Amino acid sequence: MTTSVLAGGTVWDGSGGAGRVGDVVVRDGVVTAVGRGAASVVGVGAAGSVGDGRRASSSGAVGVEVVDATGLDVLPGFVDVHAHDDAALFRPGGVDPKTGQGVTTTIVGNCGHGVAPSPADPDDRSLEDYSLPVLGRFPGRRWATFAEYVRTLAEGDADGRFGLHAATLVPHAPLRAGVLGFERRPAEATECSRLAAAVGDALDAGALGVSLGLMYAPGDAADRPELVALARECAARGKLLVAHVRNEADALRHSIDELASLGRETGAAVHVSHLKVTGPRNVGGMPAIVEHLDALRDSGLDVSADVYPYDAGSTTVASLFPPATADRGVESLLEALRPGTRSRRQVLDGLLEPWAGSTLENQYAAIGPTQISLAGFARPEHAAFEGLPLSEIAASMGADPREALADLVLAERGTLTVIVFHTDLEGMRTALAWPHTLVGSDGLPRETGTVHPRLYGTFSRVLDVYAGSGPRAVLSRGEAIARMSTRASARFGSGGRGGAHADPTVGAGGSTRGSASGSGGVGRAGGALGIVPGAVADLQLVDPGAYADRADYATPRLGPSGLVGLWAAGRRLR
After folding, report:
1. Quick check: is 573 in a domain?
2. Is residue 551 part of a domain?
3. Same domain, yes or no, for 126 and 275?
4. What is the 3-state secondary structure (H, E, C) of 242-300?
5. 222 HSE (CA, 13 A, CB side)
C-alpha cells in the first residue's frame, strides 16, 4: 500500500466553494481523508512541519510520502472536455501541453474526428489525410473497429501508459467513412443501420457519447434519419450527443435548434462544442444565444456547452472552401483547385459570397484574408509563411490572396491548419458565464509549426484571467475550478479508472437534470468527485503567487508558471 500526504495546503475541493487550509491523504491512488489534521490519521504531524516546501519527503510514519503544501493551492485535476489528442496519446510527449496546464483527463473524438476505424487497406491514407490538420500524425497501429480503440484507451488508463486519463466520444466521420467512404451524400437505410450498430458497439465498449462534426464533410451530408439514428443510440444508454454545429455565424441559432430537435425527438442529452458566435456582423449576438439556450432548458431539454477563452479559432484549411469540394475527401479538394481549370475559378469565386444551398458558413467571405493565418507548413520553401496572415503571405508571393491560398493548399496537399480571428472576447465571456458552460481547449496538437495558444493555455487562462476578482473575470475561482473538474466529469461521465460513469443526478453546471453515463469514472471511486474521501486522486499543486497564463499568439507553446505538482490516480506526472 502506498500512502502520500499533501500537507497544509489550501484545498479547493471542486464543489464550487472557496478553498480551506488542510491536508489531503492519498492511499493507493484514492483520496482517503481531507481537512485540518487529516494527516494525523497516517501518523504525520501538524501541517507544515514536514517536507522542504516543494518536494516530497519521508516522515516519521513508515511508508508515508509527504509534500509540504503550505502556502500552495491543492486543486482537482482538470478535465479537457473538448480535446483532439486521439493520436497524440500515442506520441512521446504528446500530452505534455495538457499536463503542463493541470489537465489529468483528456476527452477525445471531438468534432467528429478520430483515428479509428482504420481503413481496410493498410495503404489507404484517406482517413489520416482527412484528419491530419486536426489530430496530427497518426500512430502506427491500426484498429478494425472503434470499439477496439475504446478498449485500448481503457487499457492505457489502467496501466498509466498515457500519463493522464483518456476517454473518448465516438467520432462520426471515421465511422461514416468506414460504411460510406468519404462520399458526401445521405446514408441509405441499410448504411444507417450499419453505422448505428457500430456506434452502439463503441458506446457499449465505454465511449462517453457521440460527436458530430456537422460543419465538416462528410458529416455535413448526414440527413435527419441518420442523425436521429445516432442520437437514439446515445439516448438508449444515457450518453451525450455532442456537436460542432453546422454554422457558428449568421445561422448559429438555427444550428443549435437542429441539435436541440435531435435531443427532443430521442431523449438524448445534447452538448454544443466550443460555443461562440462568429463574424463581424454577429458581434454582440451571444447574449441572445444564451437566452435561447436558457429557454431550451426551461422547455425540458438537457443542453450544455463548452468554451475556450480566446477570440480566434483554429481548424482545417479545407473548411474555408465550399462543401462540394470535399465530396471524396481531401483528394477532391486538390482536384478542384488544379491550376487552369474551370473548377478552380468557380471555387475561388465562391469564396467571396455565401454558399448557395448550404447552411455552412463561408469563413473567408465573413472575415477576409487579413484575419486568417496559415500554419502547419511542411515544405521548406514555405517556412517563412508559418503563422502569418494570408494577406501578408499573398503580398510576398505577389498574388491575389485566394490564388495564393489555392497554390499553397495544393503544394501542401491540404494538410494546413488555419487560425481564424472571428469572434469577440465579450461574447466569449458571456458564453463562459452561462451556468451550464464547461471548458474545452479544442487544441490541435501539431508537433511542429505554429499552434493556437489554447493548446497550452486554455485552463490557465480561465483560472488566471477569467476567474477571481480581476477586471475580466466572470467566474469565482471556486466556480471556475468546479467547471474545469468535477462538473466536467459529472456531465461527460469522463474516463478515469475503468472508463466513465457520471452521477445521473448531476448535470452541467450542477443542475439536477440527467447526465451522460458509462462504466467507471475520473476523479471518482464509488461515486465521489473532486478532492473528497473516496475520489480518485487526480490532483494539482499550484503556487497562487507565481501562477500566470503565458501562452499567446506570438509564443503559443508556453504552459502556465506556478504549477508545482500534478498527480493522476496518485501517480505523480509533474
Report:
1. no
2. no
3. yes
4. EEECCCCCCCHHHHHHHHHHHHHHHCCCEEECCCCCCCHHHCCCHHHHHHHHHHHHHCC
5. 36
Residues 145/198, Cβ–Cβ less than 8 Å: yes
Nearest to 69 by CA among 543, 477, 464: 543
Q: Which of 510, 531, 561 is the last residue of a domain?
A: 510
State pTM to two decimals: 0.92
Q: Give CA torsion, residues 315, 321, 322, 326, to 10 deg.
A: -80
Cα separation, 385 vs 397, in Å, equals: 10
- Count of helix runs (H) and strand runs (E) in the chain: 17, 21
Within a domain: 528: no
Which grid coordinates are listed for 528? 465521489
Cell of 189: 437505410
Residues 245 and 376 in one domain: no
Residue 55: C-alpha distances to residues 70, 395, 530, 544, 562 (Å): 12, 53, 23, 17, 14
**β-bridge partners, 22:** 9
In sequence order, the 6+-apart residues with CB closer than 8 A to the CB of 49 are 7
Domain of residue 249 covers 89-98+106-311+423-447+480-510
* Strand-strand pairing, 56-58 and 64-68: antiparallel
Q: What is the CATH number of the domain that holds 178?
A: 3.20.20.140
Nearest to 5, CA basis, from 40, 39, 41 = 39
Q: Do 125 and 256 have their domain in common?
A: yes
490 phi and psi angles, rounded to 5 deg: -65, -40
> What are the average pLDDT values for consecutive 10-residue runs of the chain, which has 574 residues?
91 98 96 92 58 46 85 98 98 97 98 96 91 93 96 92 96 96 93 97 98 94 97 98 96 97 98 97 96 99 99 94 80 93 94 77 91 95 96 98 97 95 97 99 95 98 97 98 98 54 34 37 59 97 98 97 97 94
- How many distinct structural domains can be found in the chain? 2
**Which three three-digit cell numbers place residue 504?**
445521473
Alpha carbon distance 193, 216 (integer Å): 22
- State how far the Cα of 78 lies from the Cα of 459, in Å rounded to an integer: 8
Of 398, 418, 438, which closes a domain? Answer: 418
404 with 322, same domain?
yes
In this structure, are 440 and 376 located in the same domain?
Answer: no
Give the residue from 568, 564, 567 showing the smallest Cα distance to 69. 564
Q: 101 near 78, Cβ under 8 Å?
A: yes
